[in-house]
Amino acid sequence: MPRYAMLIDQRRCVGCMACIVACKNENKVPPGMFRTRVAETTAGIFPKLRMELRSELCNHCDHAPCVDACPTGASHKEADGSVQIDKSRCVGCKACMAACPYDARYVHPDGHVDKCSFCNHRTKVGKAPACVETCIGGSRIFGDLNDPNSEISRRLREHHVRVLLPEVGTKPKVFYINRFSTPGQEG
């Protein structure tokens, strides 16, 4: 059984937002709502400023607080390690939204909570998530952590990576290669 993860190489992201458009189109995300977003931050002290573009989405955590918080079991983990939502079981209570430290969920106009699914409808048939497939910079790498020969496993071995909010202990499966770090240096 695969164990899916995503690596986002921030050095390659050009901020084109094609990932957002592809996700919205593929998953029929309503206007004004997003399953993935690109955050723009500025760091440094003038005149030595730098801008960072960081793609953010559900982190499909190994220790997912959203799953623990869901009273109906709508938020659950699949055998492939991804965190999914069964819309038919979701009552829209927003407990999962409150529990998610990544602010990765929204309430769909139909009343259920929604988020990135790693395009599980695509991965089940051997396709990459829409955001990965459309990324013109090749910054998103998706694959199986259980396969030591997969591109994501190889890149995770070759590069220093970081996760968002490591201090919360969720063990996210979205990793980042920081634009400004050097190998072996915390990003």
Within the CATH hierarchy, at the fold level, what is the topology?
Alpha-Beta Plaits
Query: Biggest sheet, strands in spatial order?
Result: 8-1-9
Per DSSP, the total helix count is 6
**What is Rg?**
16 Å
What does this structure look like?
- The two termini are 31 Å apart.
- With 187 residues, the chain is an alpha+beta fold.
- The strands form 4 sheets. The chain has a 3-stranded mixed β-sheet.
- Residues 182-187 have low confidence and may be disordered.
- It is globular, with a radius of gyration of 16 Å.
- It has 6 helices and 9 strands.
Describe how the helices and strands are arranged:
Blueprint: E1 4-9, H1 18-27, E2 36-45, E3 48-57, H2 65-69, E4 75-77, E5 83-85, H3 95-99, E6 106-107, E7 113-114, H4 120-123, H5 130-134, E8 140-144, H6 151-158, E9 174-177
Parallel strand pairs: 1-9
Antiparallel strand pairs: 1-8, 2-3, 4-5, 6-7
